[in-house]
């Protein structure tokens, strides 16, 4: 059974594959960019700037932020406003040719604070009044993830 979580299999990618992923998106691979990409690829959920800053203690926060901004503009990552006040980032699929910014459902666990992408649950269609133009949708469901629910049962 396939997991409903968006967990692309990036973790086993070698440096050359990570470099190719960046080049495919027209991003020049640098040491810092590869470190950020590797950290994102090994994550099982979306990460905030603070999460990456803690993981990459040898890289200054401003470099991580600039890298995330570049990745976002080149569709290497999508950004998630999960309502916690901390913007999160997750890798786009390698074959993603998205023209949208994360228009799929996100789930935020109120116990562990993790945010998950659900690629197989599309956002509801929104019908706006005449004259309004939709540019993006942020659909976040909050609750308790399976891991935290299992801990509660124990």
Question: Can you give a write-up of this model?
Answer:
The chain has 154 residues and is α+β, with helices and mostly antiparallel strands. Helix content is 32%, strand content 19%. The protein has a single domain, classed as Arc Repressor Mutant, subunit A, CATH 1.10.10. The protein is built from 5 helices and 6 strands, in the order ααβααβββββα. The strands form 2 sheets. The chain has a 3-stranded antiparallel β-sheet with strand order 1-3-2.
Produce the secondary structure layout.
Layout: H1 15-24, H2 31-42, E1 47-48, H3 49-55, H4 61-73, E2 77-80, E3 88-91, E4 104-109, E5 115-122, E6 139-143, H5 146-153
Parallel strand pairs: 4-6
Antiparallel strand pairs: 1-3, 2-3, 4-5
Helix pairs in contact: 3-4
Largest sheet: 3 strands, antiparallel
CATH topological fold name: Arc Repressor Mutant, subunit A
Overall body shape: globular
* Architecture (CATH level 2) name: Orthogonal Bundle
CATH H-level superfamily: Winged helix-like DNA-binding domain superfamily/Winged helix DNA-binding domain
Number of domains: 1
Count of beta strands: 6
What is the first-to-last residue Cα distance?
Answer: 25 Å
- As residue ranges, the low-confidence spans are 1-9
Overall pLDDT metric = 82
H/E element sequence? HHEHHEEEEEH
- How large is the share of residues in beta strands? 15-25%
Helix/strand structural class: alpha+beta
Number of DSSP helical runs:
5
As a percent range, the share of helical residues equals 25-40%
CATH class: Mainly Alpha
User: Within the largest sheet, what's the order of strands?
Assistant: 1-3-2
Radius of gyration: 16 Å
